[in-house]
Structure formats: C-alpha cells, structure tokens
C-alpha cells in the first residue's frame, strides 16, 4: 500500500506542475488576459449588484428604465401601426392575426 500512495503523490505532483505550466502560458497570452479581465469585471459587477444596497438600488432603477423604455416603444409601435393600417382596428392585432408568411397589404 505504501507504494500506491507514493505513486499517487508522484502523479499529483506531475499534474500540479503541468497545471502550473498551463496557467503560466495562459496568463502570458494577451487574449487570455482580456478574457480574465472581463470575467473578473463580470464577477465584480455581479457581486456589487447583488450584495450591496447601492448596487440593488442602481439595478432596480436600471430595470425600471428598461421597462419604461420598452413600454414607450410598444406604445409608439401600436400608435404607428394603428395609423398605418386604418380600418383594420388595431394594426398590431391585424398583423399578429396573420398566418406566418401570408400577411400582405390589403389582406385581412
């Protein structure tokens, strides 16, 4: 059993050395440095927005901004489509009622 443990320890040491060499090569690669910087930034921002009260407030304000902006775009599209397709009721409803690939001007 002593031999098996010594053999395993030797294998682990070799594996550790190989991993250290791989890490050194990866760290020296400029693309890898950029990837690692982006990953670190993402991790930091995730922590900030989930673990701090200020981050939560900023995220809530940002989410509200996105929601308000999407609602404004939706409202503008509905108004545009209603004006562009008079007599069809709601242009958006008309468009969504058309089977895929068969919608054409003047059809209902």
Structure description:
This protein is mainly α. Helix content is 81%, strand content 0%. Helix 2 (30-51) packs across helix 3.
Helical region count? 4
User: What gross morphology would you assign?
Assistant: elongated
Profile the largest sheet.
none
Enumerate the spans where pLDDT stays under 50 for 5 or more consecutive residues: none
Task: Classify the beta-strand content into a percent band.
Answer: under 5%
Structural class: mainly alpha
| Rg over alpha carbons | 29 Å
Mean pLDDT, to the nearest integer, reads 82
State the helicity in percent bands.
over 70%
User: How do the SSEs run, as a string of H and E?
Assistant: HHHH
**Quick one: how many beta strands?**
0
Distance between the termini: 83 Å
């Amino acid at each position: 059993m002593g031999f098996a443990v010594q053999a395993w320890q030797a294998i682990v040491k070799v594996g550790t050395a190989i991993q250290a060499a791989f890490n050194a090569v990866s760290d020296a690669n400029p693309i890898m440095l950029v990837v690692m910087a982006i990953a670190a930034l993402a991790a930091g921002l995730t922590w900030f927005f989930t673990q701090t009260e200020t981050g939560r407030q900023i995220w809530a304000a940002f989410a509200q901004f996105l929601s308000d902006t999407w609602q404004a775009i939706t409202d503008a599209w509905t108004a545009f489509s209603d004006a562009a397709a008079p007599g069809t009721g709601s242009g958006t409803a008309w468009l969504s009622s058309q089977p895929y690939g068969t919608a054409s001007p003047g059809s209902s």
